[in-house]
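Long-time lurker, first post. I've been practising inverse folding by hand and with some scripts of my own, and I keep getting stuck on stretches where the structure tokens seem ambiguous. Below is the full token string for one chain I'm working on. Before anyone asks, I'm not after the true native sequence, just a reasonable design that respects the backbone. If someone could post their per-position residues I'd love to compare against what I wrote down in my notebook.
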């Protein structure tokens, strides 16, 4: 096993998209086995209603994560779809939960990890919603409801979200430049890694700062690798 780091996000696993699950299964069975660390930066699942959800459509992936976690250190940071993933599932899959932001030191380079939605500050409605559902009181109340009721609430929230997104410009849903600069400054970091926007790219800024955006998954994987002798390499079919 190498000292390689792998970073992924935005798989959005869902029963309606079996091809994505197949892509992730192949990645976990083959590519991830060669790495020392795997960081999942949110939205692994399209919907996660609580660790008591049997989620039969995800059991194969959950089993593979459990198996991979015996040899590869796996870390998970919540996204805007699976922020209710908790310690019960993390323990069952050998994953370590990360707070946001999370700092890494790679060859003396300070790297900050975020899911990415906290950088999209122009979307005021979403930020208000995020503040509500990330509050411990809201989560406790929601998780105390029967699973069937949680499914109904999640379906309504999803429908509202789809309608709201259809009325927003792409610019509003992308990162805010001031929020990005604040993230660099507040974390004293020279590299930001995030997902969420589904716009895979490596952005360079002044003062040798960089922002690496992980892509969403389809029939091919989207991931970032880092090795001491090679640095960062973004692997995505949409990148030349």
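-- Answer (accepted) --
I ran through it position by position. Result:
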């Amino acid at each position: 096993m190498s000292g390689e780091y792998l970073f992924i996000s935005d798989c959005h696993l869902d029963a309606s998209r079996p091809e994505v699950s197949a892509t992730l299964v192949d990645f976990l069975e083959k590519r991830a086995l060669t790495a020392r660390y795997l960081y999942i930066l949110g939205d692994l699942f399209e919907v996660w209603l609580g660790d008591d959800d049997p989620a039969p459509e995800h059991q194969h992936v959950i089993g593979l994560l459990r198996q991979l976690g015996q040899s590869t250190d796996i870390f998970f940071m919540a996204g805007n779809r699976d922020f209710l993933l908790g310690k019960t599932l993390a323990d069952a899959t050998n994953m370590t939960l990360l707070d946001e932001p999370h700092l890494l030191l790679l060859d003396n380079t300070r790297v900050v990890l975020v899911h990415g939605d906290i950088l999209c500050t122009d979307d005021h409605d979403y930020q208000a919603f995020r503040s509500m559902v990330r509050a411990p009181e809201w989560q406790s109340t929601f998780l105390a409801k029967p699973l069937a009721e949680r499914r109904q609430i999640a379906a309504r929230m999803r429908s509202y979200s789809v309608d709201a997104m259809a009325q927003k410009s792409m610019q509003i849903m992308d990162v805010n430049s001031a929020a990005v600069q604040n993230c660099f400054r507040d974390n004293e970091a020279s590299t930001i890694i995030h997902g969420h926007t589904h716009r895979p790219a490596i952005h360079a800024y002044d003062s040798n700062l960089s922002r690496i955006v992980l892509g969403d998954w389809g029939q091919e994987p989207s991931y970032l690798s880092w090795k001491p002798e090679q640095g960062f390499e973004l692997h995505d079919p949409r990148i030349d």
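A couple of notes from the structure itself: The longest strand covers residues 73-77. The chain has a mean pLDDT of 94. Happy to go over any region you disagree with.
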